[in-house]
Amino acid sequence: MNVFRLLGDMSHLLAILILLLKMWKTRSCAGISGKTQILFALVFTTRYLDLFSSFISIYNTTMKLFFIASSYFTIFLMYSKFKATYDSNHDSFRMEFLVVPVGGLAFLVNHEFLPLEILWTFSIYLESVAILPQLFMVSKTGEAETITSHYLFALGSYRLLYIFNWVYRYYFDGFFDLIAVVAGCVQTILYCDFFYLYITKVLKGKKLSLPA
Amino acid sequence: IEIISTKDEL
């Protein structure tokens, strides 16, 4: 575990906590894409099936369990408890446009043609694009609450920090996972436009709004 | 380059 990896994980954890706190305090999930949250639950579920097959550390197991549990809890809040505040009209991105191609790619390009390995690969590919319904929603409404932009910034920073972690691991541990690195770069690139808006607007105290 | 997978990550 290097400092980039730890900061990445903490950023990911922070993002989830910001999202839960926003929903809990405001009793609302307005501006949040339920599609993205469903995709994240699918990502965590397919990736962390190794909870049953291998043990890495208490830290690793705890984080995995938290990510899985929080993703399903978020879905429960959005589609049940705070359903009335869910902005489904603006959450119109079609999940199958992501899940189907990503599933096909996971079958074709993977480290080993084994069920768990294919599911792991699927989760890595799916995570890289899972934010698209959320970004689509922000662009459709043309704005995002400040707390939502903090959530997105923390979530985007996590994979960027993981890239530094992979560079570090490559040089110091001779460690390299092409699938994770390529998908991680794609994932980070998708946030670039948002990062720019966050730095130029939100950090200067303005609300994130897109030009009409 | 030898490719090792990152299963110890989250």
Please characterize this protein's 3D structure.
The complex is a heterodimer of chains A (212) and B (10). The mean pLDDT of chain A is 96. In chain A, helix 1 packs antiparallel against helix 7 (146-173) and helix 5 runs parallel beside helix 8 (178-200). Chain A has one domain (3-86, 93-205). Chain A has helices at residues 3-26, 34-47, 58-81, 96-108, 115-129, 132-141, 146-173, 178-200, and strands spanning 143-144, 208-209. The termini of chain A are far apart. Chain A is globular, with a radius of gyration of 17 Å. Chain A is an all-alpha fold. With 10 residues, chain B is low in regular secondary structure. Helices cover 0% and strands 0% of the residues of chain B. Chain B contains no helices and no strands. The model of chain B has no long low-confidence stretch (mean pLDDT 73). At the A-B interface, helix 1, helix 3, helix 7 and helix 8 of A face loops of B.
Residue stretches of chain B low in confidence (pLDDT < 50, at least 5 long) are none
Radius of gyration of chain B: 8 Å
Mean pLDDT of chain B: 73
Pairing-aware structural class of the strands and helices of chain B? little secondary structure
Radius of gyration of chain A, rounded? 17 Å
Query: How many angstroms does the end-to-end distance of chain A come to?
Result: 44 Å
Q: Helical content of chain B, roughly? A: under 10%
Please provide the count of β strands of chain A.
2
The coarse overall form of chain A would be globular
Principal-axis shape of chain B: rod-shaped
Number of strands of chain B: 0
Main sheet specs of chain B: none
SSE succession of chain A: HHHHHHEHHE
Largest sheet of chain A: 2 strands, antiparallel
Q: How many discrete domains of chain A?
A: 1
% residues in beta strands of chain B: under 5%
> How large is the share of residues in beta strands of chain A?
under 5%
Q: Name the quaternary structure.
A: heterodimer
Poorly predicted ranges of chain A: none
Total helical elements of chain A? 8
Overall pLDDT of chain A: 96
